[in-house]
Amino acid sequence: GQQVMQIPQYQHVQEGEDFTTYCNSSTTLSNIQWYKQRPGGHPVFLIQLVKSGEVKKQKRLTFQFGEAKKNSSLHITATQTTDVGTYFCAAFSGTYKYIFGTGTRLKVLA
Amino acid sequence: NAGVTQTPKFQVLKTGQSMTLQCAQDMNHEYMSWYRQDPGMGLRLIHYSVGAGITDQGEVPNGYNVSRSTTEDFPLRLLSAAPSQTSVYFCASHKMGAAGELFFGEGSRLTVL
Predict the structure, then answer these.
(1) Are residues A31 and A72 in contact, defined by beta-carbon separation less than 8 angstroms?
(2) Distance (Å, rounded) from C-alpha A69 to C-alpha A50?
(3) Hey, which end of chain B has fewer CB within 10 Å, N or C?
């Protein structure tokens, strides 16, 4: 079955440092989504990428979709304490299944 | 709008007991799904439904049953709970055709002793 790997599993950064998480799929994807889950909370949608090579920005967050549509990344510039949480990618392969990556837990040290 | 509502928020069961986790959405979404979240494992898809009367298995369906008699409700049943089913369960929905975001409920924390 489809597998979605996400690295790293954990990341501790000093406030102001950058952060990147990577998502890799074993199959070509129709689209990929990113979610953020605050500690004790539920996943909340951040963005969806559809096109090969697509890059989208939300303030300090930059999302990329690979040319082969099998990988994606989320980069946060100058992290803040409000960025703390777990970031998940979710792969949609066109069979009505959203398969989530294992997540990257981000801790930001003030 | 209430969005996606899950009940109960917390539940403790003994091995072998049965229970149903409820999920309701008021957004007229055709697609509904159940995930379980365990430390280090991310969110794993249990079952999903693309409309009333239609359900299908996800990644980890064993030990769980679902039905979809209405657009609004998608209950998850544990017929004989096992300690391995201790987890946090999330229900999520989205509108078919929009290829858009999943809306999640706040989760149900289940402990099986």
Answers:
(1) no
(2) 8
(3) N
Query: B86 with B112: CB under 8 angstroms?
Result: yes
CB atoms B103 and A45 under 8 Å: yes
Nearest to residue A41, comparing CAs of B23, B9, B95? B9
Task: Report the C-alpha gap between A53 and B104 in whole angstroms.
Answer: 28
Q: How far apart are CA A76 and CA B37, in angstroms?
A: 24
Give the three-class secondary structure for A49.
strand
* Dihedral pair phi/psi, residue B85, rounded to 5°: -95, 5
C-alpha B97, offset from chain centre:
21
pLDDT digits (tens, 9 = 90+) for B27-55: 999 999 999 999 878 899 999 999 999 99
Residue A95 pLDDT exceeds 90: no
Partner residues linked to A32 by β-bridges? A49, A91
What letter does residue B73 receive in the DSSP assignment? B
pLDDT tops 70 at residue B1: no
B40, B56, B90: residue with CB nearest A102: B40
